[in-house]
Design a protein that fits this description.
The structure holds 2 protein chains of 2 kinds.
Chain A (H helix, E strand, L loop, with lengths): L1 E12 L2 E12 L3 E5 L6 H8 L7 E6 L2 E2 L4 H5 L2 E4 L11 H11 L5 H11 L15 H12 L6 E5 L7 H18 L2 E5 L3 H7 L2 E6 L2 E6 L1 H8 L4 H9 L10
Parallel strand pairs in A: 3-8, 3-9, 6-7, 7-8
Antiparallel strand pairs in A: 1-2, 1-4, 4-5, 9-10
Chain B lengths: L2 H18 L2 H66 L3 H5 L5 H31 L9 H27 L6 H4 L19 H8 L2 H15 L4 H32 L1 H4 L3
Chain lengths: 247, 266
């Protein structure tokens, strides 16, 4: 069953077509990487998936719910993390997680917060103001917030940005384990190609709002004759086709 | 607790936690009402000392006006500023992708507005009693209706302000502090509507607060409850609130279409 089904999705702002006839599906337990340069339409697509933005045309279904008419039923089983959307900095990490525990209707939120604090190494940070944390610590707290409701669908925008390599690796391992244990479906926007190769079962490449290629990481590598996704990304960003890409 | 109530409480808890950790915010809640009460209380005392018993009655009405107007002001500001706190902390993105419905957001803002209003007005009421021997509670149970009408008017105005912020971004935030002051001349807070010029009286008639303050003077000066004024205040409040809800619903949808919920802090 497709947990995310995006069909002919478009978004126009006045004269600018930010997303142009995008369609893709994500199966249960899969991780889809949404890749593209700045202005490719990744953030706009994620915003529409989350119901923050109304599409100009097309349809989005998440967990069987039409996001145009029934988004709150889906949102209760989804969550989102981005280093570019803050959590309130003046209140403590524990209070932040309590707030989102209430908003997502988490039963036994106290125990869930303790679990997440232990697993993401946040125990020593729980009573500190969220605004006083380092960028890496904030990213881990944002990840904890995104997992507070044990989501069935997780949307991650640059989840390991600002993390040192060791912590970044811990977070990736944790996401892999969480997906394996829960069957969670993940949509990941990232510029870290090694991360995409490691976590994603499928990749959608966006350019100027359109899907220019898609497939498994291995399929893309084979198609462009490259050994890593970074080079595939550059080929697409610079307009080289699969045929033009060097051997 | 139902899931809906829990979500409303969740957002209120976020702001209560904020106030628990920020004494300047707590002080700010009571600062202005106390300052207003001090200035107008001394002014009223001066007139009472010069003018005798009639002046004492009018002085009492002025102090009642100051205190009750703070109910409307604090209710409106409390709701608008609570929403602005979410913008300032750049947290709205997380709030709007949670299962919190727009009406639950409004309910949480109203809840916080009530708490903020009480935290601001109660110290001023106590000050009026301690310094000027003015007991607002002497108006009797009808005071509840005065409070309720002024709170609802404040919420309707706040909802319109929030709609403008959704439409024009944080650039419209100055309205959160200033908009109700523009209505003050037509609210008959310190003087009866009859002293206004004809055109201003027409405007005052459609402002719920003007009927509340006419009702307050009827109680404090004439010792009677002006049910007709209270009826007009309630009816106008229903209309104002209905209009504000329509504007909010429309602007929320426009914000979702234009992408303003993503970039509202800018």
């Amino acid at each position: 069953m497709d947990v995310i089904a995006v069909s002919h999705l478009s978004k126009r702002y006045d004269e600018t077509l930010a997303v142009d006839d995008v369609s893709f599906t994500v199966a249960r337990g899969a991780t889809l990487g949404l890749l593209g340069g700045n202005g490719a339409g990744k953030t706009t697509t994620i915003a529409m998936l989350l119901g923050l933005l109304v599409p100009t045309s097309g349809e989005i279904r998440v967990l069987g719910h039409n996001m145009a008419t029934d988004r709150f039923a889906a949102l209760a089983r989804m969550n989102f993390s981005s280093p570019y959307v803050s959590l309130p900095g003046r209140i403590s990490v524990r209070e932040n997680l309590q707030v989102y525990g209430h908003l997502y209707g988490v039963t036994n939120a106290k125990r869930r917060i303790a679990e997440l604090a232990s697993e993401l190494d946040l125990e020593s940070l729980l009573d500190r103001a969220a605004g006083e944390l380092s960028a890496g610590q904030k990213t881990r707290v944002a990840l904890a917030k995104s997992l507070i409701n044990k989501p069935d669908v997780l949307l991650l925008d640059e989840p390991t940005a600002s993390l040192d390599p060791d912590t970044g690796d811990l977070v990736r391992s944790w996401l892999e384990r969480y997906r394996a244990e829960t069957g969670c479906t993940i949509l990941l926007a990232s510029h870290n190609m090694a991360e995409v190769e490691r976590l994603c079962s499928d990749v959608v490449m966006l350019k100027k709002g359109r899907i220019v290629d898609h497939g498994t990481p291995q399929e893309l590598l084979d198609r462009y004759g490259r050994v890593d996704l970074e080079d595939v990304f550059l080929d697409i960003a610079r307009g080289r086709t699969t045929l033009e890409a060097p051997e | 607790m139902s899931l809906s109530l829990r979500r409303i409480w969740g957002l209120m808890f976020r702001h209560i936690a904020l106030y628990r950790r920020s004494w300047p915010r707590l002080v700010e809640l009571a600062y202005w009402p106390i300052l207003q009460m001090s200035i107008w209380g001394f002014t009223a005392n001066f007139f009472i000392a010069r003018g005798g018993s009639n002046a004492a009655v009018i002085g009492g009405a002025v102090m009642g006006g100051v205190l009750l107007w703070e109910v409307a002001l604090r209710s409106q500001m409390g709701m608008s500023i609570t929403f602005l706190e979410e913008i300032w902390s750049r947290n709205l993105g997380h709030v709007f992708v949670s299962p919190l419905r727009p009406w639950e957001l409004v309910a949480a803002l109203i809840g916080m507005s009530f708490l903020r209003m009480m935290a601001g007005v109660i110290p001023a009421v106590l000050l009026a009693w301690a310094l000027y021997a003015f007991n607002l509670l002497s108006a009797g149970p009808v005071l509840v209706l005065f409070f309720l009408n002024l709170m609802v008017m404040g919420w309707a105005v706040a909802l319109a302000v929030i709609s403008l912020i959704l439409r024009h971004g944080a650039g419209a935030e100055a309205l959160a502090w200033s908009v109700l002051f523009g209505i003050t001349p037509f609210s008959a807070v310190f003087y009866p509507v009859s002293v206004l010029p004809h055109v201003a009286r027409e405007i005052a008639f459609i402002v719920p607060a003007s009927h509340v303050f006419e009702g307050m003077r009827a109680v404090l000066i004439d010792g009677r409850i002006a049910w007709d004024e209270l009826g007009w205040a309630a009816l106008l409040n229903l209309l104002w609130l209905f209009g504000a809800i329509l504007i909010f619903r429309r602007q929320f949808q426009v914000a979702r279409t234009r992408g303003a919920l993503i970039s509202i802090g800018e």
